[in-house]
Specification:
This is Sugar ABC transporter permease. This protein is mostly helical. The chain is built from 13 helices and no strands.
């Protein structure tokens, strides 16, 4: 073997070793993500029903049906309304809590645990607790409302209150996790920047927050925004436990769950799933591209 061949063989061996190390991850990626996605796309083009022996190719008719289906359209707009409430409140309320907790010295650990407890709790169990809390006659929330002199509110019985009520539960669920992320971002900000801002004339805490803290939290805010948006569009357990999908409370995931498992319309459910994935993907990429321009690393 010549010296030239030996020189070419060394990089090739490195490439082969690299491919060998990457092979398990590639196989896992294909098995868990790519192949199921291809199968899902194939089902979406058919009228296949779970357990059926025969099925037919229907092309894009499932997607056309979805955009003319009043139940799906109502579920879509309900999910948008839910996300429109959860995303801003889940982000800015968590930021406010993180700023308050970050300033604590002795009781910081206690408050961190208290706000993070909803994240560790099982959402199905906590939804049952919320069902009791919001009960029109037995719940303590309506007891306080009656004590204040107002009539009891049917939080889970009034159609126009269903989505806002579940959205408030969603905010309660995500605030603790987002608070921990913001606390990590606050801890990473050098104190020298605050001192420099104070010397430059930023005397009040609000001025230092706007000139130092908020810009330095850009990467954390971008991550929190994307993850909160995905979580908001994935709402399912709250609907399944509190309302069981009654009219006015349908969401995207619950609608496709009903089509796929209750009605056994596998082909149509696959089309709804692809639409859901596209919505989440476009939202995540759009938020990332928009916020990336405003982030200071």
């Amino acid at each position: 073997m010549s010296v030239l061949d030996l020189g070419y063989s060394r990089p090739r061996r490195k490439i082969n070793k690299g491919m060998l190390f990457a092979a398990p991850a590639v196989v896992l990626l294909l098995t868990i993500y790519i192949l199921p996605l291809i199968t899902l796309a194939g089902f979406s083009l058919t009228d296949y029903q779970l357990g059926a022996v025969r099925w037919h190719f229907v092309g894009l008719s499932n997607f056309t049906k979805a955009f003319h289906d009043p139940v799906f359209l109502r579920a879509f707009w309900n999910t948008v309304l839910y996300a429109a409430i959860v995303i801003p409140f889940g982000i800015f309320l968590a930021l406010g809590v993180a700023l308050l907790v970050h300033g604590r010295k002795r009781t910081r650990g206690l408050w961190e645990v208290a706000y993070f407890l909803p994240v560790t709790a099982t959402l199905v169990a906590m939804a049952t607790v919320w069902q009791f809390l919001l009960h029109p006659t037995l719940g303590p929330v309506n007891a306080v409302i009656r004590w204040l002199g107002f009539d009891a509110v049917q939080f889970l019985g009034t159609p126009w209150l269903l989505i806002p009520t579940m959205a408030l539960i969603g905010v309660w669920q995500v605030v603790g996790f987002n608070m921990v992320l913001f606390l990590a971002g606050l801890t990473a900000i050098p104190q020298d920047l605050h001192e420099a801002a104070r010397l430059d004339g930023a005397k009040s805490p609000i001025d230092r927050f706007l000139t130092v803290t908020w810009p330095m939290l850009g990467p954390t805010t971008m991550f929190v925004t994307v993850t909160t948006s995905i979580s908001a569009f994935k709402v399912f357990e709250t609907v399944a436990v509190l309302t069981k999908g009654r009219a006015g409370s349908e969401t995207l995931l619950y609608a496709l769950y009903l089509e796929g498992f209750d009605y056994s319309n596998t082909g149509y459910a696959a089309a709804l799933t692809l639409i859901f994935l596209c919505v989440v993907l476009v939202l995540s990429i759009g938020q990332t591209l928009h916020l990336e321009k405003k982030v200071h690393y």
